[in-house]
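User: Batch of two.

Assistant: Item 1 of 2:
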Amino acid sequence: MIRAGIPTQVSEIELRYRSKVAASDRPECLTSESAHELFRDWWDADCMELFEEFNVLLLDRANRAIGIYRASQGGTVGTVVDPKLIFGAAIKCRAESIVIAHNHPSGQLRASQADIVVTNNLKQAGKLLHIPLNDHIILSPEGGYYSFADDGLI
């Protein structure tokens, strides 16, 4: 309700997306191994043992990488995952699906209960938005990885 004599100000919301890579030049991501390689190449290896980080690989309709979005950085044992930020980025760049990844500074390649809950929450949100979650990758500083999809958890 607008009250007489009181000026009302509303901010304009502007959405923009500009790709720096032609669609034909984007790397394909068809397997957990290819997702792992894309994340591993992008990740700062010097920080992998220091703190947890949560990243999102945004894919187009042909499963080509649009880009990687750093959703959060945390401490040595966890990081906050906000679905609004993850899917906001996916919607903004018109992603058709996503792969999520985080690292375990300890090197453990087992999914924690918190990892499973986050994965299920993002999977449900993705269904609602028609942006499926293809996989959740856990990376180890030693070079290994764990795939939720390969283990039948997605």
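Item 2 of 2:
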Amino acid sequence: MAHKGLILAVALWIGSVGAVAAQLQHPTLLRNHPAIRYDSTPSNDAVAKLNEKLKSGEVTLERRGPSGYLQSVLEALHVPVESQLLVFSKTSFQAPKIGPKNPRAIYFGDTLAVGWVRGGEVL
């Protein structure tokens, strides 16, 4: 009798895990969802516009000291350096570089944010 209860409990657990897993989609699949369409919709945001200006040579970025291109990017995107917040994140892909002695800096405007990690390879 106890075995039947254990088997039923395990079957219910496996069924519930399967149901939850079926509801979760891989993040790359969401990029192609009809409501989002990241892969097929042209970007028209501040970063895309800056990228076009960089490609055309209308704007150039200057590397400055240990923060690299950060100051130049903030200026080009009109993001005030005074907006800086320092945060910690275990979920960042740069998480190994982030900690109490080296937090992530986030600078923000009304429509965008720029993240920077000292020693990181990307903005």
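The longest strand covers residues 104-108.
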